[in-house]
């Protein structure tokens, strides 16, 4: 299994429009952050987690040849508004892509983008996606997958565990039942946002507490703002790093 960080940035991306701070002006490519998303490859199949606002750019950058399934974490704009960029893959492969998410997330995505969903599409548009609501573990492309319910301030979001790797973007707290599903991780990718606190996201201190609790072999902090300079990574505890766009992790 291989995971690629397609986007490691918060909703504004980094650099942020109009900002000339040291991180937005940084020449380190790891300080250039598109909106949060990952690609999981297993048995030659590709799972995209979220259709970020930067999906087209990310797919071109990483030369993604096709998408076999999409998982949604929640319906904030930075995580779903690139959904139309799946159209290019459809024109080539002519396949309807299954899209997974919690029943409520799927309901909201269909409500916002009914014209691309099988059984809901408007005349004149071919269906791009087929909805698959999930609320328990399942297997896909040889990968054991567990949805992980998370709290994102007053909202709910869904993390996903793929074998022994977990992707928990956009969260501010992890319910006890979900913590029990996150034992024995090789890799934890978790929302770390920035140094200052935020009501709807773990900040770096909060994410590090979760890392301490779960003790994954390797941890990556993602969904980062322009408060975070990649070169400050050396201040993180051993085994914890800042995610950056294009980073790939091979897992057995
Ligand atoms: Zn977000
Ligand atoms: Zn800035
Ligand atoms: Zn969000």
What does this entry look like structurally?
- This protein is α/β, with parallel strands linked by helices and 252 residues long.
- Helix content is 17%, strand content 28%.
- The strands form two sheets. A seven-stranded mixed beta sheet has the order 6-5-4-3-2-1-14. A seven-stranded mixed beta sheet has the order 7-8-9-10-11-12-13, with helices on one face.
- Strand 7 (138-140) and strand 8 (143-152) form a beta hairpin.
- The protein is globular.
- The chain starts with a strand and ends with a strand.
- The site of one zinc ion has 6 residues, from loops.
- One zinc ion binds next to helix 2.
In which order are the strands of the major sheet placed?
6-5-4-3-2-1-14
β-strand amount:
25-35%
Poorly predicted regions: none
Summarize the amount of helix as a percent range.
10-25%
**For this entry, what is the oligomeric state of its chains?**
single chain
Q: What string, H for helix and E for strand, traces the elements in order?
A: EEEHEHHEHEEEEEHEHEEE
Distance between the termini: 6 Å
Radius of gyration: 17 Å
Q: Indicate the overall shape.
A: globular
Q: What's the count of strands?
A: 14
With helices defined by DSSP (H or I, 4 residues minimum), what is the helix count? 6
Provide the list of bound ligands, each named once: zinc ion
- Summing up helix and strand content along with how strands pair, one would put the structural category as alpha/beta
Give the overall average pLDDT: 96
Major sheet attributes:
7 strands, mixed
